[in-house]
Amino acid sequence: AEPLAQAGVLVVSLDFRMPPARRYPATLDDIDLGIRWTRRHAADHGGRADWIGGFGTSSGGHLILLAAMRPKSPEARLAFVISGWGVLDPLLRYRLAKERGAQNFISAHHAFWGDEAAMSDGSPPAILERGAQSDLPPALIFQGTDDAWVPRAMTKDFVAAYRRAGGEVELELLPGARHSFFRDDRNSANARRAIEVTRDYVLKRTVGR
């Protein structure tokens, strides 16, 4: 948030309830409300409602992309979306977690999704395959090449499908970065690059368009 704000970008950090208070798909109601509030009050803080985009990382990168592709209300449509190392296919990660015995991920999936049918319903790649999207805003997707939970082959397939469906999307792969790269070292070359591509994309989709 700080590098974006320093570049002159209005940043609103949304919170949303998680299990046991809320679970899929109700969690998206909170995100929808946050987007609508931001659009409604953007001018009060020097922003523009028609420039509002969304950005999230990891599970947040999945949720903001899902909210962008299937906004729950017309007022929650986004001008662009950025997913940083987003868990694009929750069903795939669930199956990877089962293969690897990662009980923390398995338990989190059960708490948030309930079952595999819900994971498929909320999977952006599966949504594109079904043609169930209602919007495809311009998107930036970036992640590490060594992300064990978001296979780069799946991400490339998703990017290709997004384009075939008529969406505009850019992909940035960070060499050698793992899923936890930003948390591991926020001063690393890949962390600095992540901030740079995010900032530049926001400015391009707003003041530069």
3D structure, described in words:
Helix 8 (about 150-165) links the parallel strand 3 (about 140-145) and strand 4 (about 170-175). The longest helix has 17 residues, at about 190-205. The chain has ten helices and four strands, in the order H-H-E-H-E-H-H-H-H-E-H-E-H-H. The protein is an alpha/beta fold and about 210 residues long. The model has no long low-confidence stretch (mean pLDDT about 95). It has a four-stranded parallel beta sheet with strand order 1-2-3-4, with helices on both faces. It is globular and about 50 Å long. The chain starts with a helix and ends with a helix.
Structure described in brief:
With 209 residues, the protein is of the alpha/beta class. The chain is built from 10 helices and 4 strands, in the order ααβαβααααβαβαα. Helix 4 runs antiparallel to helix 5 and helix 7 runs parallel beside helix 8.
Summarize this structure as a short list of keywords or feature phrases.
alpha/beta, 10 helices, 10% strand
Query: What gap, in angstroms, lies between the N and C termini?
Result: 21 Å
Average per-residue pLDDT, rounded, comes to 95
Query: Quick one: how many beta strands?
Result: 4
Q: Strands across the major sheet, in which order?
A: 1-2-3-4
Question: Count of helices?
Answer: 10
Computed over alpha carbons, the radius of gyration is 16 Å
Approximate helicity band? 40-55%
- Percent strand equals 5-15%
Order of helices and strands: HHEHEHHHHEHEHH
> Which of globular, elongated, flat, extended, rod-shaped describes the shape?
globular
Helix/strand-derived category reads alpha/beta
Which stretches are poorly predicted, pLDDT < 50 over at least 5 residues?
none
For the report, how would you describe the main beta sheet? 4 strands, parallel
